[in-house]
Amino acid sequence: MKKPFVLTKERLEELEKEHVYLKTVREREVAEQIKEARSFGDLSENSEYDEAKNEQGKLYSRMAEIEAILSNYEIIEAVNDGIETVVIGCHVNVRDEESGETLKYSVVGTQEADPSKGRISDESPFGKALMGRKAGETVSYETGAGVFKYTIMEITA
């Protein structure tokens, strides 16, 4: 069986709402675009029709992606205060060993990762390096841009 998608309750609710919207409102809108584009005549030279069909393909692709997630997910359980190691759902303060800058991240599943908002995936190189480690430990990981070193300063719920 495939590994389940790790989600917060909030993200699960967002996906369920998006799925309902796509299946009801958006699917009708795209069907109407196709119907209107067909009325323009010859489909072989009809860019509106091609665009509407491409939009339909994107819509069905996104719906299938959400359905796959909703059929195989695991909710992140609330993390208690006093945790000692980095786990999914916790917050971690780290110090960049090169710049000395302190950064705060939330460790989340791949579906919720957004590094620009301080949300890193447990499956990213940085997330993998942090998982299971304790405050005070220094972790390093390598990417195409080089090797990065961080010291874990604090782990909180």
Overall outline: elongated
Q: What's the alpha carbon Rg, rounded to whole Å? A: 22 Å
Strand order of the largest sheet: 5-4-3-7-6
Sheet/helix structural class: alpha/beta
Uncertain stretches of 5 or more adjacent residues: none
**Chain-averaged pLDDT:** 92
What is the chain-wise order of helices and strands? Answer: EHHEEEEHEE
Distance linking N and C termini: 30 Å
Percentage of helical residues?
Answer: 25-40%
Tally of separate helices: 3
User: Biggest β-sheet: count, sense, barrel?
Assistant: 5 strands, mixed
Tell me the β content. Answer: 15-25%
The count of DSSP E runs of length 2 or more, i.e. the number of strands, is 7
Write the layout of secondary structure elements.
Elements: E1 5-7, H1 9-38, H2 47-70, E2 73-75, E3 91-96, E4 102-108, E5 119-121, H3 125-130, E6 138-143, E7 146-156
Parallel strand pairs: 1-2, 4-5
Antiparallel strand pairs: 3-4, 3-7, 6-7
Helix pairs in contact: 1-2
Considering the chains and any ligands shown, give keywords for the structure.
alpha/beta, two-stranded parallel ribbon, single chain, 157 residues
Structure commentary:
The chain is of the alpha/beta class. The protein contains three helices and seven strands, in the order E-H-H-E-E-E-E-H-E-E. It has a five-stranded mixed β-sheet. Helix 1 (9-38) packs antiparallel against helix 2. The longest helix has 30 residues, at 9-38. The chain is elongated and about 70 Å long.
